[in-house]
Amino acid sequence: MSLEMNTIRLENVSRRSAIKSLCGMAMGLSHLGTAAQSKPSASLSINPRWYGFNLLEYFSTDPDWMKYFPYVNDGGFKEDDFQWMRDWGFNWVRLPMDYRFWTSPKDPMQINEKCVLPIDRAIRLGERYGIHINICLHRAPGECCLDQLDPTLTGIQVTRERTSVYNDPLALAAFVNQWTYFAKRYKGISSDKLSFNLVNEPRDADTTLSTEEGEREYARVARAAIRGIRNIDPERLIVTDGYPGADAPIAELIDTHILQSCHDYYPIQLTHYRCEWARGAGSDRWPPPGWPLKDAKGGIIANSTSVWEKYRAWGSLAKDGIPIHFGEMGCYKHTPPTVVYAWFDDALDMIGRLRSGWALWNFRGPFGILDTERAGTHYRNWHGHSLDVTLLKLLQNKMKA
């Protein structure tokens, strides 16, 4: 659909409220551009108010994922997605991407510029619709959380990285090269429009390391990329996911003053109920979840209190002037809709207490608001898509809170 499409709005999100939301984001980000090289200040405790979704058109070169996500892995980001997000009041998009789309399989230092053009287009669409773009290496040279999956359990064939960024100097050089390339290509685009998320859910594959040792190893790798970016574009806003797996803040990177990002999939028995790629954790054997989540005897496994206790440490970063954001969250399509809404209500209240923004893993797809295929959901037809109106309104109300 064209830019001129006259989109019907739900929840009466006015252009004034959307502009107000975007202005608030810009005010928060006005301090973050210089955070890369400045000392901590009280102003940095104001987190950017980003609200939005992940888009998966460049998610993985392994086609099996397309069985579960309604995206074509061709980099064809859809303009409608950006327009609808804008019209519904959202202002942030993360692009979790596989570097192999644009990098030579024979030479990890060689980048095919033609294959980077879809990323350029997504950034332009973000500028056109007032949506911040966060580009992320979901698969980086020598690092990808998907490599831990067992295809015999998941039914998803993943082409694993042959080396590790943590112990192979060539993989580390290729990782840094990815980010210096982007730093050069997008220098001049302000940080209120574009940020760099170094790698998705980092976790050292060396199981002999303690969490503390693994965090130090990741910090070493991250610092190499941070130095490479800042040597070219000192003002670029840089983001790191927490460690391990975007779960906890990284004390080892506080002195870099980069933004830290958390992913909320707690409790996994609810968010990933019957999820195919979580079968290794027993997702196909878990009982149907409720919220609060209880065991067979009625004891509480997780509730709003435990959610707060799990994530409250992220609020401690404010004292060091480190901004935070929840870059992923959501519930898979097999979790019943009433449970999903109750969980979101508490999870977003927790994030609100931390004064942070948030994003769902999907816009279209099983963790999102369009085409989720969640049984029992009251859908509205939205230009040929199935829209979860109840979840959309819930998200809009939490943005206003």
Verbal overview:
The chain is of the alpha/beta class. It has a single domain (15-400), classed as Glycosidases (TIM Barrel). The protein has helices spanning 15-29, 79-87, 117-129, 151-154, 169-185, 211-232, 268-271, 304-311, 337-353, 389-400; strands spanning 51-54, 92-98, 132-140, 143-144, 194-197, 237-241, 259-264, 293-294, 300-302, 324-329, 358-360, 379-382, 385-388. The strands form three sheets. Strands 1, 2, 3, 4, 5, 6, 7, 10 and 11 form a nine-stranded mixed beta sheet that branches. Strand 5, helix 6 and strand 6 form a beta-alpha-beta unit. The radius of gyration is 20 Å and the shape is globular. It starts with 14 loop residues before the first helix and ends with a helix.
Tell me the helix content. 25-40%
CATH level 4 superfamily: Glycosidases
Domain count: the total is 1
Structural class: alpha/beta
What is the approximate shape?
A: globular
Any idea of the CATH class?
Alpha Beta
CATH 2nd-level architecture: Alpha-Beta Barrel
Amount of beta strand: 5-15%
The unreliable regions are 1-45
CATH topology: TIM Barrel
The span between the termini is 32 Å
- Our count of helices gives 10
Report Rg: 20 Å
Number of strands: 13
Mean of pLDDT: 90
Main beta sheet: strand number and arrangement?
A: 9 strands, mixed
Order of secondary-structure elements: HEHEHEEHHEHEEHEEHEHEEEH
